[in-house]
Amino acid sequence: MEKWKDMFAKRWLLFFTIATAVIFGIISPAFLQVANLLNILSSACIVGVMGVGLTCIFATGELDFSAGSQVSLASCLMAVMLGRTSLHSYAAALILTLVILGLVGLYNAFLHVKIGIPAFIATLGTSYLVKGIAKALTNSKTVNNLPQWPKAFTFMGQGYLFGIIPMPVVILVIVGALILFYTEYTRAGKYLYAVGSNPTACDYIGIDGKAQKVKGFVITAVLCGLAGVMQGSQMNAASPTLGENMFVPALTTVFLGATYGKIGVFNVPGTLVGAVLYALINQGLLMITSELWLKNYVQGGMLLFALVMVVVIRVKGSKK
C-alpha cells in the first residue's frame, strides 16, 4: 500500500493530466479526437521547449524574467533576416539567431555573475532591452508572411514528420530527451542541481558555481530562442510582443513540474507533463466556453497552486 501511495504522490500530475483529458472528452466528445489531441500537443510544444530551458536556470537557483522577450526577439530575428536582408538560407538564419540568443544569455550571466546584480533585477532589465531590439527590428509591427521567406520558414511550426507527427512535437521530444540526458546522466549536467541546492558546498568541493550559472543562462536563452523560431513558424508571422504572453504559461509548467517525479525539484519530465496539462486545459476551456475571464482565472489559479505546492513540499522536506 505504501508503495502505491508513494507512486501516486510522485506521479499525481500525470494522473491528473489524464483525468483532465477524460473529463473534457466526456463534456465534448470532439476533444479526444486524434486531430484535436495532436493540435493540443503542438500548442504545448512552444511552452514546453521554453519551460525546459527555464528548468535549467531554475535548477541553479536563479530565474530569468527575460525569457518571454527572448522568444519574441528570436521570431523577429528570423523574420527580418529571411525577409528583409540578403540572407536567404534558413539554416544559416537559424544558427545565427540561436547564437545571438546565446549572447543574450551571456549578457544576463555577466550582469548577475560578474557584476553581482540579483538575477530577477538583471533579467527584468534585459527583458526591456531585448523587447526594444525586437521592436526596432520590426518597427513595432507584426511581420506577416513576407514573399521572401523560404518554404522552410513554416516547416518547424506547421510541418509533419512522415506526414503524421507534427514537427513541434518532434522538436520538443528531441529537446526534452537531450536536456534530460544532460541533467540526469552527465556529471556536468548534475552540477546545475548541485549549485542550486547548496552553492557553498560546491565551492568547497571544487565545483565552479558561477560557471554553472552562466551555463544555465545560456541554455535557457538558446532554448527560448528555439521556442521563438517555432512560434514564428507556427504563426507564419513575427511579433515583438507576442512572446511575452508565453512567459507565465512556461513559468507555470516549470513549477507544476516540480511536483512530479522528483518532488520539490525542477525537472524536465515534470515540465513536459505540466506543459501538456496546461495545453489540455486551455484547449478544453476554448471548446466548452467562450468566456475569456475563465481562462485567466484558471491560468492564475494553476500558477498559484504550483507555487504553493512547491513551497509546502520544500518546507516539509527541510523539516524531515
Structural summary, described in words:
This protein is an all-alpha fold and 320 residues long. It has one domain (10-315): ABC transporter involved in vitamin B12 uptake, BtuC (Orthogonal Bundle). The protein has helices at residues 2-27, 34-59, 67-84, 90-115, 119-138, 155-158, 167-185, 187-197, 199-205, 209-235, 247-257, 268-288, 292-319; strands at 143-144, 160-161, 165-166, 237-238. It has a two-stranded antiparallel sheet with strand order 1-4. It has a two-stranded antiparallel ribbon with strand order 2-3. Helix 2 (34-59) packs across helix 8 and helix 2 packs across helix 12 (268-288). The two termini are 22 Å apart. The model has no long low-confidence stretch (mean pLDDT 85).
Topology of helices and strands:
Layout: H1 2-27, H2 34-59, H3 67-84, H4 90-115, H5 119-138, E1 143-144, H6 155-158, E2 160-161, E3 165-166, H7 167-185, H8 187-197, H9 199-205, H10 209-235, E4 237-238, H11 247-257, H12 268-288, H13 292-319
Antiparallel strand pairs: 1-4, 2-3
